[in-house]
């Protein structure tokens, strides 16, 4: 045996106890991810809940306010 293996065999092993059983870490992670999934699921289809405010199904460029014709006048004067 080498000197290092003799020292390792003679040294005292330090065991740090976990604050809870190891399986509970997985259960805790599962509960947290399920909670976050429920929160994310509640935001589904939020854009369609307020479609009465924007009229029919809007596209990316139909969010102009009524009466704001400055953008449209530039295209019609050509």
UniProtKB/TrEMBL annotation:
Residues 50-78 are annotated as: Disordered. It comes from Paramicrobacterium agarici. The chain crosses the membrane at residues 20-43. Residues 68-78 have a biased composition (Basic and acidic residues). This is Uncharacterized protein. Keywords: Membrane, Transmembrane, Transmembrane helix. It comes from the Bacteria.
């Amino acid at each position: 045996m080498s000197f290092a293996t003799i020292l390792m065999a003679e040294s005292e092993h330090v065991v740090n106890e976990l604050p809870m059983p190891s399986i509970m870490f997985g259960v805790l992670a599962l509960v947290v991810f399920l909670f976050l999934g429920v929160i994310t699921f509640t935001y589904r289809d939020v854009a369609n809940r307020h479609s009465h405010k924007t009229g029919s199904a809007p596209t990316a460029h139909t969010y102009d306010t009524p009466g704001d014709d400055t953008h449209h006048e530039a295209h019609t004067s050509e």
